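U., I forgot to send this yesterday:
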Amino acid sequence: GKSGTEYFHHQIKLLEKNYKDPNKMTIIFMDKKKRDIVFDDTRTREEFFQTVSQIKHIHKSEKDVKTVSVFCCTWNMGEVEPVSDIIHLFDDQGDHICGYSNQAKVAHDIYAIGSQEANITEKDWVNLIKRALGHKHPSVQYNLVGSQTLAGIRIVVLVKSDHINKVSNPEYSLVKTGVGGMVGNKGAVAVSFAFGSTNMAFVSCHLAARAERKLKRNQMYQDISRQLNLGRKSKFSSFDLPLRFDHLFWLGDLNYRLDCEYREVLERIKVGDYNGLMKYDQLKAQQMQGNVFYDFKEGEINFPPSYRYKRGSRDDYVYIKYKTTGNVHNVPSYCDRILLHSLPQLKQTQTGYFSNLQYKASDHAPVIATYQVSTRLQYVSSKNTDVENENKQWYQRRVRGLALESRY
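Result:
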């Protein structure tokens, strides 16, 4: 640069192009310092980017991470303070695990824990999670990427300390969708960041309750998706939320119910016919109609409904909820869900989807999903016509999907 300062390739962590100014670039160094550079023209900037990328690629001392394992948990805690030891929350196997898991005893690269109706401070909850992970995987250390809280809704994201130098641009946001959009008992919180050159976001939400309010839930999803202030530095910042990130993990008490008689639900649970319950699932129906979560993927559900258990038990469900405003009938339902949206050319494999029956104080059981997701190489830039054509077709489908969603 004009200052005459010299920098070596091993000092550079990330090159970040400015998509508002085609002549500008930001260099992020290993010590987290940044320097903006303005080039004479776009061509010079691209030549610089390619040159530094090639040098980094030639001299890299460690293998680039091409896939990362991700553990996501959503837990409506029922406004009950959790027990002092939650180590079993991170189990993949055991009699208390219902569902499937192909990654037993793995120390995942990223942990994202979403909670609703939490009755514990954010600081205490983060410390409790870190302590449990420390006991679960004593040879691995985890660093907090970020956390966000809205009343009882919370998201906490941690990453292996070995990967912390790959994490940059953390952002946090929240949306209230309670009464008049002013109350925080319903809504969403989110954390996003770049993992190398791969943009990731994690959303934890709590949508409207009661079986008859599925259209209200649809609208809340739309409001959250539009109002979460994340991905501001992405070249897709003006796009719908799922388009701003390579991987968007959405977890929470979505509150979609089973449109089915109570007795039939219990009979199917008794014989383990969880697939048979899916034809009554509101969320699946709304997705198929293109009303919500367009192009999101969800693993096969092979576990009993996560709500509404009798508190203190995981053998019985409670049908009637007694309230001062009137009794509410609650058919056991898959209220607690985890979905993933990934952009084209980035592979995802769901390695587990299960409920954890260890913790019984809440009327919800925690639900966990695990993944292997691909990441972009940090210093490789390529132009591939086949990839561009596939991306173009995908975006055309996505625009049609957004048109369908906008009806609600």
